[in-house]
């Protein structure tokens, strides 16, 4: 029996037909292509299907059809005639079903479409964090036992059209991200009460937590953090996206204590760059981290993220924030003025130079990402990191050789010389993965989904936390309307 989900999707599309009357560019590259078949009570018809980003293209009888499947409904189904596995795509009141070897095309479709069977696919294990609009859970896939972070939005909390548009925008932006330093989203599910983002599980905690319990970082380590963030932001900007909320709490360590692998998360305030400045939220960010031009109501571009990284660099080098007021309003005022005290910061001249260039109050004078990556503070420390890495590798290899000599080699048993090169080539380091110690009653979620399902025979074609504490001061995440 196939399941038909009886609720109106948040992403339901108004359309007068399933296939678009658009001209197909025959020179475009496809992410996949294969032969499938369409089934009706009277006949079975072959069709060739291709995927190109968000478009599904069908070739049949020397004709081509195209449709945009972004946020279309996506379901796995079974043929009523021969039990073959198939796919159902829903757009508005229209559906399209096809059958065959569907794994590869389904994997492509789920990156851009909306599925409805979350509780059949995943088990929620524990709650990780709770925000205003969303709760983050640790979940396990029932089929692979892989763990994921699930960002769960309760629909009744998204009460107005602006919040709904912001959620859709966040999902759209996350789907564009494909970089090691940026959060990965795998698929999206929906039922009558919840929307679920299936995301990469980052196990190391956020940078703010790390800084609170650690000693001051060396400039070599600081430069590595900044360099990696610049790489991630450079890719983000190449996709036309501004983050607008880069801060320690939104920078997540992929593994515990590994500062070399930090991921930029929480794209709730991100937006696609618009030349006319017509953003859903125009004046937004976290007080103390926002580029001054945003607070001044001036036009802004990608350099707002450079400023936020500059604030982070200031914190990493000084151990304090550049803008600390008695309350949010005073912090915002100081942030808007952009006057920063660089006194008593013990750092190299190269570090001071880059920090000041990134924290230029006027965006036209602010350093670009490319120039920042080529700044001596970054390039000189890259050389130091590579040199230190080589020394550490040599020390580790020699230690291994010594252990091998003590344990495995006895002059009484052998007189042959030791092959040090062979020992070094066979040496491997195994690092155990860190797992989080993360409980939550999920009966309500499971009950909601079961109530959404109406079984029928088909025989027709058819957050993040918002507080930051440094020097006993608190700053709340705010959206300035």
TrEMBL record:
Residues 122-378 form the Protein kinase domain. SMART domains: S_TKc. GO terms for molecular function: ATP binding; protein kinase activity. InterPro entries: Prot_kinase_dom, Ser/Thr_kinase_AS. This is Protein kinase domain-containing protein. The lineage of its organism: Eukaryota, Sar, Alveolata, Ciliophora, Intramacronucleata.
